[in-house]
Amino acid sequence: MKIHHLSPEEALDSLGSSMNGLADAAIEGRLHEFGFNRIEESKKTSALLLFAQEFLHFFALILWLAAGLAFFAESRQPGEGMATLGYAVLGVIAINGCFSFWQRHQAEQAIAALQKLLPHQVKVIRDGELSLVFADELVPGDLLVLQEGDNVPADCRLLEAFNLRVNNATITGESLPKGRDAQVSDVEDISQSRNILLAGTSVVAGEGKALVFATGMHTEFGKIAHTLKTTVKGQSPLQLQISRLSRFVALLALLLGVVFFFIGQIIGLTFWENFMFAIGIIVANVPEGLLPTVTLSLAMATQRMAKRNALIRNLPSVETLGSTTVICTDKTGTLTQNRMAVKQLFLDNQYWQPEQLGSDSLQHHTAFLANAALCHSLKHVEGKGLLGDPMEVALVSMAHEQGMRIDYPKIGEVPFDTDRKRLSTIHNTPQGKMLFCKGALEMVLPLCRHIVMHGNVEPLGDAGRQQLVNALKTLADQGLRVLAFAYRPLSDPVEAEPEQALIFSGLVGLEDPPRPEVADAIAQCHIAGIKVIMITGDHPHTAVAIARQIDLVKTENPKVITGDRLKKLTGSQLQVALDAPEIIFARVGADQKMLIVDALQRKKHVVAVTGDGVNDAPALKKADIGIAMGKAGTDVAKEAADMILLDDNFASIVAAIEEGRAVFDNIRKFLTYILSSNIPELIPYLAFVLCKIPLPLTIIQILAVDLGTDMLPALGLGVEKPDASAMNKAPRSYKETLIDWRLLARAYGFLGLLEALAAMAAFFFVLHRGGWDYGEILSNHHPLYLQATTACLTAIIMMQIANVFICKQRQRGLLATSILDNKLILSGIALEIALILTIVYTPWGNALFGTAPIDIKVWLFTLPFVLGMLLLEEFRKWLVRRFTLFPVLVKPLKLRKRLLSRH
């Protein structure tokens, strides 16, 4: 038999213990057999290995290869600037590796948070004596002494209990304190047994003695920890995209290198000339600035989200939010205000608003109001009022508003638990001893024989009982949590079973009102194609009623699945059920969230899940984006989550999703911008080798673009604000990639070619003005060559200045875009201009970058190319809008107006 099915004496005997506790001689043997009472940590990878891993992922390997090839090329042909390129690439690798390692180190602390919840020292009876021992030295068979305020250090079976109540929220998610006693229990689930205390919970009232039967990883607490540390979180969508992008970049660079190696063979170059040519092509096609730009863009997005009450714990989660297709959300505190208030009363067979109770009716409902005014676990804090359970705060506040302020001494209690679903307290009153009972109607009503009607106590017949049941349904259908109140005078001495022949005094409907901004947030989710699923422990009627108030449910018969039904569903049945357009999970335990998350992920959804308790942690870690509550959340939930909601508000999730969507679009913007400059960097090198002309652009000048002038404008594109239409379209498909043929065609085949044309034209313009003839050899230090290569570099930077405004919008025209709203882009352009002027017109800039001053005619020569690129891109965008954009946007915009007009 399980220990909670045994009597106290049988439980002690089963563990070889007694009411005097274990003998000291038995402790060491049990400690060796069962181990220390600790939450075991996973075998940790050494910090050194973790640090090394940040330099060995695929894109980092590409950069290592590029640096190695650069150094090899320098060894074969010194003085070409390849060593400078190699050192620059190594710097990029170092910066990204260190930053990523720091982020990763901050993100993995969940098991440590679990350990902190367990107390350090506990009171134990051993060899008949009370002593303090360290909690990790507890063993099965130990006898604990627990009092109000103590944390429970291990799973134990109560042997004695005096008005004992515990808070199980960290394990079961239940917010109300539960009564516990030493009586034999017949329930099957040990966590619901009235004689069991679980590790990680806390005693909020009373005292008792308890027998330890499970320690460490064998406790229910330990099982949650085991689930948490064995739950493997897959790569985020952005991490997968970066992996694909890395493979694409590597394949493209290698392919181009091989192709041009054979072109060199065809035109008669030697093997080593061909090999160096191929290395140059490969290195030129690796975007060295990509990783820094992605990392900094994500980091700045986290700052914007923090201002919208969403704290991101690891960078890739920023973009994951934007990919979200389903949000599984709690109700209490997230969709609602977590601020209980008495909304409606049922007294004298009629419905009342609390404010309708006046002095005339007060005398008829004295017992009812006294029951409400008796608080059991509230504390009055100066300046903050009553603090404690929101339900009790609401009841006491209602009684105080009616002038009922009492403090009857409590002399006894029949505690609340999940089986009884009611709480009875016994008090000394001016009228003598009195029992006050409140709880679920179905548990209180059978105990009642009379009812208060207009101040008189009358018999309660079948018709009256049915009327109360109907009233319960009416109140629940309004989304109210319903409590039944009853009382009875007691004789002296108090009988053994005082909960009988009660007098029914009334029903209370309590409301936890929805947050006012949630309805609009739900409407925004509908427009954005995001499905919202409520998962709550509340009654199905209450859940559906709240869902209707926030427009989460609009049909007559939404699919409602209770926790009991969920237990009976197979994985495939659950997946099919999740296809319902409106679905709510009610009376669901937090441990069942993981089943729902897993089923949604098998359906290829990107799932965001909210949670606050220890038992939510596995689901938070399993989800694509785990969202912990900042106010109500436990440390464990916060450590397991990817995002912490600072205000516990659902609307903040939707705001964060909007920011996340912008991240993906912004990464594509700066990818287009960065890749565009690869072509004007590549073509000069090709022309140098194939056409036997002076090298139009040196390696150090390429670095001046990739890691200098391009960086800040690219970062500016990475922090663009969400577009107005970002939440008017469905989530992007999981098949959609960062780089597709359209982006490549635009970056390489259109914008890049235009920039290359301008760069080569400027180069030849200067050479032609200087009297150069084709085939003439110019040294690297010849004044004409220095001016010509400076003109090429200047043209690329000028074209990139125009390109940053082009890339701000993929489809909207320049005139329809606010070009002055991004201070970082404007700062980047100012920096670009300052850098190119420094490179061109200062002696040290000339010496470092191999440049020479150019006159105003070169700048004017390049200007038509800049204007031409802007005009051609405007024409391209017009064609795109004309044939694709208009039909796509009209329908979502109309839907948005229709939904928001209802609020």
UniProtKB/TrEMBL annotation:
Residue ranges crossing the lipid bilayer per the database entry: 48-73, 85-102, 248-269, 275-299, 743-765, 785-805, 825-844, 856-872
InterPro entries: ATPase_P-typ_cation-transptr_C (IPR006068), ATPase_P-typ_cation-transptr_N (IPR004014), ATPase_P-typ_cyto_dom_N (IPR023299), ATPase_P-typ_P_site (IPR018303), ATPase_P-typ_TM_dom_sf (IPR023298), ATPase_P-typ_transduc_dom_A_sf (IPR008250), ATPase_P-type_domA (IPR059000), Cation_transp_ATPase_P-type (IPR050510)
Pfam families noted in UniProt: Cation_ATPase (PF13246), Cation_ATPase_C (PF00689), Cation_ATPase_N (PF00690), E1-E2_ATPase (PF00122), Hydrolase_3 (PF08282)
Its membrane topology: Multi-pass membrane protein
Keywords noted in UniProt: ATP-binding, Cell membrane, Membrane, Nucleotide-binding, Translocase, Transmembrane, Transmembrane helix
Highest rank taxon of the organism: Bacteria
Main location: membrane
Listed NCBIfam families: ATPase_P-type (TIGR01494)
Similarity comment text for this entry: Belongs to the cation transport ATPase (P-type) (TC 3.A.3) family. Type IIA subfamily.
PANTHER family assigned: CATION TRANSPORTING ATPASE, SODIUM/POTASSIUM-TRANSPORTING ATPASE SUBUNIT ALPHA
Protein's name in the database: Cation-transporting P-type ATPase
Source organism phylogeny: Bacteria, Pseudomonadati, Pseudomonadota, Gammaproteobacteria, Methylococcales
